[in-house]
UniProtKB/TrEMBL annotation:
Residue ranges constituting the Aldehyde dehydrogenase domain according to the UniProt record: 61-527
InterPro entries: Ald_DH/histidinol_DH, Ald_DH_C, Ald_DH_CS_CYS, Ald_DH_CS_GLU, Ald_DH_N, Aldehyde_DH_dom
Domain of life of the organism encoding this protein: Eukaryota
Keyword RNA-binding applies: no
Annotated Pfam families: Aldedh (PF00171)
Signal peptide coordinates: none
GO molecular function, one term: oxidoreductase activity, acting on the aldehyde or oxo group of donors, NAD or NADP as acceptor
Annotated catalytic residues: E298
Organism: Raphanus sativus (Radish)
Biological classification of the source: Eukaryota, Viridiplantae, Streptophyta, Embryophyta, Tracheophyta
Keyword line: Oxidoreductase
Protein name: Aldehyde dehydrogenase 22A1
Entry keyword annotation includes Signal: no
Recorded family membership: Belongs to the aldehyde dehydrogenase family.
Length: 596
């Protein structure tokens, strides 16, 4: 005890010191970001105070302007330029020049950049969520969950572990290279390109930006034409934080436009990250193939939501409805196929019906609503088409929500939460990504059946399995083909930012987030060097030096068995042979030199 007592005291003192250091607030400067033109009650000019009526049946692309409006109210927000190919290449070139300086920055400076961002986000949560709500139609609560918490979690993880996973990582050198030191180094790639969707405009910009900048890269992000207004404001926050740490201008850029803008970006950068539809993802791959640009694709999802008969029905019903209705179906994890065990099917429908009837929906900034508007123009027609197809094939509507006091002219921006029963896999609603507030619910009888049903999809992003037996839930989840699985929860994976995120099949490939996503922004370089240089230097054995000796192959045979033989005695015997070969060869060389 006399020996351990001083160690215990030292450990306790160390813990106390660490705790006291935690109480000292870090010195993080504040940044000032002009938000007067984005607040709902801020300064507004006559030219952007009208109701915008987007043209139906045709794209904005012919206008060369990205028109922005509030989906919930159709209020006009302004426009941004659709950048041409030459303009995009110029922006990438500027970022590339800035990146060469930023690549030499210390992790201390990069962490300070993250802390400045984190401080601003925490102090301006309402502003960030309000901007997201105005541009996409989501509620403030949904914006907080999907925009603020996920981004703060990412920043916190990078502050805690980011440097650790970007430092050189030592690896074993193997038997043949025992005299060597082996390691993996992670260097910046250069300029990362990202094309991101509209569903979470704040986080979709910050997610790739944080990983790229922390790993020493520049990044150019093309925001969705459906969320350009918010994206360009969020860019101001990034610019202010970079300036506060003395980062070079143009390291990060946000660009606006349509297909031409995105295509130009793909052909100009060193790595491409795309989050969006499968169809566009395939186009990205074709364009990237021309320059052999590596890509990460996070595409569509049709996640299976499985509920076993021993699950807590009332709890799971709440989770299921939130997973479907969050941001009017704008969830990034895509809970779109519900499989409920036949023994609790009726009870689950009853609970879901009760919850859906209680859901309030409307313009999110005009009152307290559970659900907001649909961001995409004319998307409600696509959703209704999926519902009609299911009804034509035998499905029934168990319950359909309402919107209360909405005018006739607002019908296109809203879609009532809809629960479909008696569905099957012949229906489009069980095969195509809906991205809307529709819950198609199907029965199953056995675990084997539901696993087969869950895997019967071209999408394979994620799944959620609920059971009173955690072991059973894990067994089911382990047999489902997907990149993300949640046990007795839904979409919780994304809040664990140490984990990679991505899917397989038509849901894409590659990963962002986590260690894998951070290192995906790097040039991964393998390095080998002599362990005891210059005392021990690598030399080619005499028998295989040019011109090779007559017994060169026999020497190689003995060397291979010495290194990799399964029997220790055979390896020792082969080692003796190797030494003989080397000795004989040295004697031969010595005799040859004397004869000359």
């Amino acid at each position: 005890m006399a020996f351990w007592w001083p160690l215990i005291v030292l450990a306790f003192a160390y813990a106390i010191c660490r705790f006291l250091l935690m109480l000292i607030p870090p010195n993080v400067p504040s940044i000032d970001v002009d938000a007067s033109d984005v607040l709902a009650h801020g300064k507004e000019t006559e030219e952007n105070s009208f109701i915008y009526i987007p043209p139906r049946g045709r794209s904005q692309q012919s206008d060369k302007k990205v028109q922005c409006y509030e989906p919930a109210t159709m209020k006009y927000l302004g426009y941004f330029p659709a950048l041409s190919t030459s303009e995009v290449k110029e922006r990438v070139a500027l970022s590339r020049k800035a990146q060469k300086t930023w690549a030499q920055s210390s992790f201390k400076v990069r962490r300070q950049f993250l802390r400045i961002l984190l401080k601003y986000i925490i102090e301006h949560q309402e502003l960030i969520c309000e901007v997201s709500s105005r541009d996409t139609g989501k509620t403030m609560v949904d914006a907080s969950l999907g925009e603020i918490m996920t981004t703060c979690e990412k920043i916190t993880w990078l502050l805690s572990e980011g440097e650790r996973w970007l430092k050189p990582e030592h690896r074993s050198s193997g038997r043949a290279m025992l005299h060597k030191v082996s390691r993996v180094e992670f260097h910046p790639l250069g300029v990362i390109g990202a094309i991101v969707p509209w569903n979470y405009p704040f986080h979709n910009i910050f997610n790739p930006m944080l990983a790229a900048v922390f790993s020493g890269n520049g990044i150019v992000i093309k925001v969705s034409e459906h969320a350009s207004w918010s994206g360009c404001f969020y860019f101001r926050i990034i610019q202010a934080a970079l300036a506060a740490v003395g980062a070079p201008e143009n390291l990060v850029d946000v660009i606006t436009g349509f297909a031409e803008t995105g295509e130009a970006l793909v052909s100009s950068v060193d790595k491409m990250i795309f989050v969006g539809s499968t169809a566009v993802g395939k186009m990205i791959m074709r364009n990237a193939a021309e320059t052999l640009t590596p890509v990460t694709l996070e595409l569509g999802g049709k996640d299976a939501f499985i509920i076993c008969e021993d699950a807590d029905v009332s709890h799971v019903a709440q989770v299921a409805v939130r997973g479907t209705l969050q941001s009017s179906g704008q969830n990034c994890a895509g809970a779109e196929r519900f499989y409920v065990h036949k023994d609790i099917y009726t009870a689950f429908i009853t609970q879901v019906t009760k919850i859906v009837k209680s859901v309030s929906a409307g313009p999110p900034l005009t009152g307290r609503y559970d659900m907001g508007a649909i961001c995409l123009q004319e998307h409600s027609e696509n959703l209704q088409s999926l519902v009609n197809d299911a009804l034509d094939k035998g499905a029934e509507i168990a319950v359909r929500g309402s919107f209360g006091h909405l005018g006739e002219d607002a019908v296109d921006q809203y879609f009532p939460p809809t629960v479909l029963i008696n569905v099957n896999h012949t229906m489009k609603i069980m095969k195509e990504e809906a991205f809307g507030p529709i819950m198609p619910i199907m029965q199953f009888s056995t675990d084997e059946e539901v696993i087969k049903l869950a895997n019967d999809s071209r999408y394979a992003l994620g799944c959620a399995v609920f059971s009173g037996s955690q072991r059973r839930a894990k067994q089911i989840a382990s047999q489902i083909q997907c990149g993300v699985a949640a046990i007795n929860d839904f979409a919780s994976n994304y809040m664990c930012q140490s984990l990679p995120f991505g899917g397989v099949k038509d849901s894409g490939f590659g990963r962002f987030a986590g260690i894998e996503g951070l290192r995906a922004c790097c040039l991964v370089k393998s390095v080998v060097e002599d362990r005891f240089w210059p005392l021990i230097k690598t030399k080619i054995p005499k028998p295989i030096q040019y011109p090779v000796a007559e017994n060169a192959f026999e020497f190689q045979e003995a060397l291979v068995e010495t290194l990799y033989g399964l029997n220790v005695w055979d390896r020792l015997r082969s080692l003796v042979d190797v030494l003989k070969f080397l000795t004989d060869q040295s004697s031969h060389v010595s005799r040859t030199r004397k004869s000359h």
